[in-house]
Amino acid sequence: MKKEENIDIQDLFNDKVIVSKIQNKLPNLFRVAEIETSRAGKIGMEVGSVREKVISALLIYKFGKEKVNTDIPITEPETDVIIGNKDISIKTITANGGVKAVWTVDAQSSQNFINNYKPKCDILLIQIWWGLEKDSFFLIPLEVQEEIFKKLGKNNYFNLPKAGTNPRGVEFNRLAIEEMLKHPKTLKIRIKWDKENLKHDVYERWVEYWEQD
Hints:
By secondary structure, the protein is of the alpha+beta class. It has helices at residues 11-14, 16-36, 47-63, 107-115, 142-152, 154-157, 174-181, 204-211; strands at 38-39, 42-43, 68-69, 81-83, 86-94, 100-102, 122-128, 133-140, 158-159, 170-172, 187-192.
C-alpha cells in the first residue's frame, strides 16, 4: 500500500460528526464485543482483539479503506494499524486496568523488550468507564511518549517483570499512563458509558449463513 503524506490521525478529534459517533456508538459497540467474547458470564481475553477491530473500522470509515493498512503481521509487537505514514497502536482497558505495552511469552522476552525499547508510534487508548462519564478516547502522540519516557526512565515507565514469573507481557507504569493522559498535547474525547441491556444473539448471523441456499 502506498503511504499517504496528508493523513493526520488528529483529524479524528476535530471532526464533530466523528466525535459524536464515537460518543453515541462506542459504548454499545464495546458491549457487543463483550457479549461476543463471553461464556458463562465471563469476558474472555479475546475481547481486546474485537475492540481493536471496532476501532480499526472507525478509522477505515473516517479515512477510507485505501488509506488504512490493517494488514499488520501478528509478530509486530506494537503497531496495530498504519494510517498514511503513521504507525498507530490501539489499546483498550476497563477503568484503571493495566495497559500492556506488549504481549510476550515469558519473562526473558519481557526484559528484552524493555532493554531495547523506545517509543515508536502514536497510541489510541480507549478507557472504558461503565456507568460513568469521563474523558475516555485518547490520542497519545509519539512526542508525548518520548517526553514522558525521558522524564521517568525505563524503571518508572514500565512495571518491571518479577524474576521467576511469567507476566505474559510488559505493562506501562500507572504513573506513566497518568502523565501521558494529562499532557496538554494528548487529545481526548469525553464519553458517557451507559451500559444498556442489549439483546444480541451471537449465533444469529451464523444461523442465517446456514439457512442460505
